[in-house]
Amino acid sequence: MLFTNARVYTMDKPGTIDTGFLYIQKGKIVSVGPMEFCPETSDDILDLKGKMIVPGFIDAHSHLGMIEDSVGAEGGDVNEMSDPCTPQLRAIDGINPFDRGFQEALAAGVTAVMTGPGSANAIGGQTALIKTWGKSVDKMIIPQVRGMKFALGENPKSVYGEKHQTPTTRMGEAALIRQQLYEAKRYMEDKEAAENDDELDPPDYDMKCESLIPLLKRKAKAHFHAHRASDICTAIRIAKEFNLDYLLVHCSEGHLISDILAEEGAKVINGPILGPRTKPELRNFEGTQTTKKLLEAGLTVAVCTDHPEVTSEYLAFSASVATKGLDFEKTLAAITCNAAAILGVDCIGSLAPGKDADFLVFQNSPFEVHSQPEMVFVDGIRRV
Description:
Distance between the termini: 16 Å
Low-confidence stretches: none
Number of domains: 2
């Protein structure tokens, strides 16, 4: 299918095309460019008459499908609060793709979400990057992306403090994470040694340690939930100790240490942007300024909703609030190409040949309060 005469925001090379085309086949982008290079084809052609094409939005951190809408405890599968270290848990086993939140997100132009365990545990489990269209998580997942959820700060110490169980302090959280990572590292080394020496017995199977091996080999990213500046620094400290490929989720006080984050080359997912400061570690969060200050410091920043804290359908609005005063493309980047770069996915987030044909058509700016996409395509098929 060929889309012509559109203003195309590729969020990739060659940048924004004032009057351009987008050509897709079999769920992939074949070509994109100015109209003078538009291919001749017998495929269906849709003249957009100046409308806007943008990449599908990515909600870089959420719990969509794991905390179900209007259901309560029966649909709450986000926190396994029986053990503070649960790296063996997998988000794909807890997601309900029939939750109405998926329909609402899709209608608002969110075509992919990073969803996963919550922040009750110091190590919460494995995240999943999934499309928002589908009936089975196995068909919706983008398998190249792997992540492990860690949490620092108020949440784990509050949950387990009530049980008089470690961790009851921030020190306890960090110690638990280190202990589990050290055990996984030793397990991995013993396993590799046994594979290379027939006289050595492999270690007994340990599901927790097995789950952390991709992280230690930098084949999965560490997602650190951290609001307070001191917790953000702890996350960086642990990541450096174990040479982890990490990203910072929430980063509410990141603007207070933006120079440190810039020096470290940290990747930040900021949000939720909307809503009240509901706990002490949020008291310094500046919803309309934090993201902007981090971007101005030269950091790669994405905006998230933390669904259902703010539902995913308000991702574009969140981005517009978070980047108030910055140009259109920086706002768009926060929920497209920046999100893809931070999560480590290269098949979505921009419009370029070979990428998934996930894109939106707007009459007006997606950051106007009343704006809704006229068309939503996922894998080259119109879903809205």
